What we know:
The chain is of the alpha+beta class. It is built from 4 helices and 4 strands.
Amino acid sequence: xxxxxxxxxxxxxxxxxxxxxxxxxxxxxxxxxxxxxxxxxxxxxxxxxxxxxxxxxxxxxxxxxxxxxxxxxxxxxxxxxxxxxxxxxxxxxxxxxxxxxxxxxxxxxxxxxxxxxxxxxxxxxxxxxxxxxxxxxx
Length: 138
């Protein structure tokens, strides 16, 4: 989020934004603004960013596969073996995250039978966003 989107001096002056930033502002703030204008409440949560890497994970029922992304690249994997099909160096971090995710899923299946099926259902069309800050195993 850019300061121009919310600063007292510029929050109502979209003329100071180029087209791309104007679209970003509308994308980020349209939902909360609509809720506020309708008399609803918006909860704001402030977090501190660890010096890690962005990871995003989703399930897609249509292709029956996990979508696992880093900040700049994503991969699709139904099974752990699919990860190794991505050969370019640009997939290094996404591949590492995919292996971590498959480790988590395997542990879930071993310890909480049926949880993975529900997780897929819950994550279909939804994306978990996280910050990867290290692992003892990867």
